[in-house]
# Entry
Amino acid sequence: MPNYNLKINGETIAVNADSDTPLLWVLRDQLNLVGTKFGCGIAQCGACTIHVDGKATRSCQLPVSMIDKEEITTIEGLSKEGKHPLQEAWKVVDVPQCGYCQAGQIMTAASFLKENPTPNSKEIREAMHGNICRCASYNRIEKAVAIAAKKMS
Amino acid sequence: MSTKEKNITFSRRNFLKTSALASGGLLVGFNLFTACKSEVKPPVDIANLNFNDFNAFIKIANNGYVTIFSPNPEIGQGVKTAMPMIIAEELDVEWNKVHVAQGKYNKKEYTRQVAGGSQSIRFGWDALRQTGATTKQMLINAAAAKWGVEAASCKASKGIITNAKGEKLGYGEVVKEAAALKVPENVKLKEPSEYTIIGQDAINVDVDKIIRGEPLFGLDYKAEGMLYASVLRPPAFGQTLESFDDSEAKKVNGVSKVIKFGDKIAVLGSNTWAAMKGKKALKAVWSSDEELESTEEHNKILTNILDGKEFEIRREDGNVKKAFKEADKVIERTYHSPFLPHNCMEPMNFYANVTPAKIHLVGPIQTPQWTAGRVAKLLERKESEIDLEMTRMGGGFGRRLYGDFALEAAEISNVAKKPIKVVYSREDDMTDGIYRPAIKYRISAALKDGKVTGYHLKEAAINGNMYDLIPNFFPAGCIPNYKVSTQNYKSKITTGAWRAPYTNFLAFAEQSFFDEIAEELEKDPVKLRLELLQNVKNTSDEKIEYSGSRMENTIKLAAEKSNWKENTAGVFKGFSAYYSHNTHVAEVAEIIVKEGMPVVTKVVVAVDCGIVINPTGAINQIQGGVLDGIGHAMYGDFSFEKGKPSHKNFNTYRLIRMNETPKVEVHFVKNELSPTGLGEPGLPPAGGAVANAIYKAFKNRMYNQPFIKELENNKEKVLS
# Structure
């Protein structure tokens, strides 16, 4: 199996994996970064969302061999001590029910707010529509993203 | 007063026991009564319980910190936050000094651990309050003894006991003495007006871990030397395994073993990807002795049942036959629901390590006790050899009641002689489901002199029939001649409970039907329901499950908050009200029309769940339930062709997404009645409210779910 040097959450980490292994499973099974969740395996639900050079990407469809010098950020590395404005807003609004999809939701929102720091409600709803929340905490996710946007801008 | 309004009470004597801990501190054992069926009653012999019969504990440490071991599995319904709030209220400690730990399953210590049926809070209410209050009294008694004063002259608040002289002792300073005291009886509980924690927002106790991505869920669990197992199961219901070739699977890097068990084949690998790849490389030949089932065939069978005469009578009042014979007009409508998969975001998974000494099981499960028993039976082992740990669950919705995945894990580990974790892919999860069964309802009403004089509901279901309580839900008791008949067809397709079992679709059918009755009688739909409820308000029928007056208040609140009588151009409103899982709910859905299709923009919900323990959690549950109900009514479509499921993943199976969700506004009926559950009751009325709003916009009744298919089928009519 080939070796890869990955830049994850600011550290360079050597991993040994089959070239077609999705980054999701490298993160979860090899590196114990289990905050990135498995939901569908076909980039349809957003539970596995990470950042590749700051851009929201589905790690379940990203083979480890496709990554070169890109900076990977997972939920564990989004902020120090979980204090990203989105994480703070998630607490203020009390978003989670089961909580399983929320890391992916936060990662999608964090990337989106970099591109569009002052979104309106419609833009938030469109940007977040790729992330499924089976508990349907959508009203609160929408509210939390709006609160974080205000705080960040 | 109907049976459901009475408080669940039991003897307070000896209902809890205390013990000093070797590590310092006080341990209090008490009992929670939770079960998935609401008819489960607390045992009468509570006075004879010994310490091992308790299923929940609180520990008060020397530093005054309180740990509550919550025995109830958390599936996202918020009980891990709400239940300890009740204890903290009566114990009078600061909420931020309370820590909640998920209890391990232990047959001796936890006798009833189930998450299901929205019953945790309802059955826990009395026990939790009494535990808190009794423990507080013991701490006061201990402090009073230390001071040599009367306990009655001391007070406790926020974890500190104060005597008449103003001297203070923290709870932690008297725990040792309190542990040796006799448990006081008949301790006075607080009045609702004295509450400082109950009724205040408390955020989800696991929120920090969730937003930081810390390990919490079954899929996150790891053990030394653990292998991952991906299981190939028959692709169609009714098939068996004829033969298989695993030569390619074994060539996959990381695959260590292939195990056949029953009609399934497990591929074991050092990581999830290897196991999944190995499974894909298996070549299996399947066979079946009988014709495999298809939805088209099911539809014919269910229609034949409705057309036939073979039914079980679930409730019958008055003379239904006569009422229909003498009616001015009879309305009859048939409603159809498809199968539905649960689609928990966290796919099914379970860890098992079966060794000669013991069986270690870890994972997301709604029924730890039942599952442990079944694993013991399957492996012919003693239940005492099983150590089962529950993790947080990435959704349940009923699917995690069944434990089939835990049995698979145990069986594979038993053969492999290694710790393993079964991991379902999304495809496995969606195609090896225990589905909400397809159901048809035929409802008929006899109308005479502007009134509903007769009502007959017939249910034809795949596998299951509505459980015994449901025939006594609204509108039972409102209509003098009333009948509920059921019949089912036994299918090989596995079916089971799905969030708000049966009523999730039944409420849509009945509440849509009432809209038609109202139209026929030229009555406002809200007014019709309020008129009907007058008949049940003073009922002496103990079987009636809901309260006429509580339903009336709930309906009135929804009508008021939604400005039901006001019309806005281009906005169409639909009304629905239902009682399920001991909670009364009324909903008004608003839709607009965009490109010829309905868009739900707002839902106003009124809820009577008694005292609201944790408003933020309660609103979250209702919002989620309503959106879940709308999503599945609008889009949920699942069928079978020759035993094979029609969808495998989210690329074709549609779940509601954020850009399709309305704002859900929640209002609670204010009263001081015992609290009831909220995980399920918000869902059932949602489909009916939307269907009735669609009718106003399109003049097109929804008889089949999902609505988008129904609207598509009627597009010409809709657009004309």
User: Anything to note?
Assistant: Chain A has two domains: 3-77, 80-152. The domain at 80-152 of chain A is CATH 1.10.150.120 (DNA polymerase; domain 1). The longest strand of chain A covers residues 3-8.
